[in-house]
């Protein structure tokens, strides 16, 4: 990540935020397709019943609506990548734009395969996993093109801890993304109600793990506890060490709020017997949690300077063994 001085371009900054928001809405649209069981409501691709615009009724509303939103977001990301290529001097930001473009193209192909192959689990899970990565890329681009990122000066504080806030936030990103992958497997293998009770599992802390649906569902529950602990560690570190930096404190507080909401929604998914709206909100909150951790990682890299490592190990005074003369 270079320190090239770049002028803020308000139009580009606004556009990148619009792209990120629209990509998030696309995630929600896709979540509603799965939550309502509408994945094959339109059984052909790329047309819908041989038409560009079919009757928007029942599951067709969700599936074809998802395709329409995806087309719109794809066009936005094409525009973003080209705009960055033309005027953005930072190579790493341009690369993010090309990755987002490649990701959305591959995402469209996976979406088509999902329909043509009749919802195979592996393709459906890959489609869901890539969607989160594309969203993360659009968020990273929006952060890098924001007014605060470009107009603020050098790093405002030093991070002298053995594990930097950047490394911890990156760990949180990885943990959240792995949990998202587990959630995608749960959703697309129909394991959402494999354990239909909460907070206990069939009245136990650990249920009999004698079937894949129960095992993957329970792994997702255990993963939620692990993610909560990692997020709490990151947030507490940020609030204790850097409470004077609003650009660090803001995402840290948001992480705590989102992880609490996400835990509640996860319980509600089971207790509501997989209500489509609750399940989709659970997926959307997970995406926001991932984006917030990513934003905190980027901001900690931008606003916190790592303490320099010593050139040599510390020199310790020589002590003779007791009794030596």
The gist of it:
With 325 residues, the chain is mainly alpha-helical. It has nine helices and two strands; from the N terminus they run αααααβααααβ.
Structural features:
two-stranded parallel ribbon; 2% strand; 2 domains; 2 strands; single chain; 9 helices; mainly alpha; 325 residues
The overall number of domains is 2
> What is the N-to-C succession of helices and strands?
HHHHHEHHHHE
Q: Which sheet architecture does the biggest sheet show?
A: 2 strands, parallel
Structural class by SSE content: mainly alpha
Percent helix range: 55-70%
Please list the strands of the largest sheet in the order they lie side by side: 1-2
**Rg for CA atoms:** 23 Å
N-to-C CA distance: 57 Å
E-strand count: 2
Q: Any low-confidence stretches, pLDDT <50, length ≥5? A: none
Tell me the fraction of residues in β-strands, as a range.
under 5%
Morphology call: flat
Description of the structure:
- With 325 residues, the protein is an all-alpha fold.
- The chain is built from 9 helices and 2 strands; from the N terminus they run αααααβααααβ.
- α2 packs antiparallel against α3, α6 packs antiparallel against α9 and α7 runs antiparallel to α8.
- The relative contact order is 0.12.
């Amino acid at each position: 990540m270079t320190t090239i001085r770049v002028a803020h371009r308000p139009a580009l900054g606004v556009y990148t935020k619009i792209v990120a928001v629209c990509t998030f809405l696309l995630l929600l649209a896709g979540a509603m397709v799965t939550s309502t069981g509408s994945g094959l409501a339109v059984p052909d691709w790329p047309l819908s019943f041989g038409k560009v615009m079919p009757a928007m009724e029942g599951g067709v509303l969700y599936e074809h609506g998802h395709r329409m939103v995806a087309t719109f977001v794809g066009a936005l990301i094409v525009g973003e990548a080209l705009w960055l290529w033309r005027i953005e001097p930072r190579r790493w930001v341009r690369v993010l734009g090309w990755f987002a473009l490649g990701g959305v193209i591959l995402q469209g192909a996976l979406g088509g395969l999902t329909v043509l192959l009749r919802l195979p689990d592996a393709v459906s899970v890959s489609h869901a996993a890539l969607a989160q990565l594309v969203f993360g890329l659009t968020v990273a681009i929006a952060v890098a093109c924001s007014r605060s990122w470009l107009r603020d000066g050098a790093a405002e504080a030093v991070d002298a801890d053995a594990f930097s806030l950047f490394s911890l936030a990156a760990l949180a990103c990885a943990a959240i993304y792995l949990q998202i992958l587990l959630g995608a497997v749960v959703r697309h293998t129909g394991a959402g109600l494999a354990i239909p009770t909460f907070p206990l599992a069939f009245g136990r802390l650990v249920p009999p793990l004698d079937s894949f649906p129960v095992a993957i569902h329970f792994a997702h529950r255990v993963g939620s506890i692990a993610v909560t602990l990692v997020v709490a560690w990151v947030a507490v570190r940020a609030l204790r060490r850097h409470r004077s930096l609003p650009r660090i404190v803001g995402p840290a507080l948001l992480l705590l709020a989102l992880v609490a909401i996400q835990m509640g929604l996860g319980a509600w998914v089971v207790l509501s017997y997989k209500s489509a709206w609750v399940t989709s909100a659970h997926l959307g909150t997970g995406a926001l949690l991932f984006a917030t951790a990513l934003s905190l990682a980027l901001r900690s890299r931008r606003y916190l300077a790592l303490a320099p490592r010593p050139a040599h190990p510390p020199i310790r005074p020589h002590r003779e063994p007791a009794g030596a003369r």
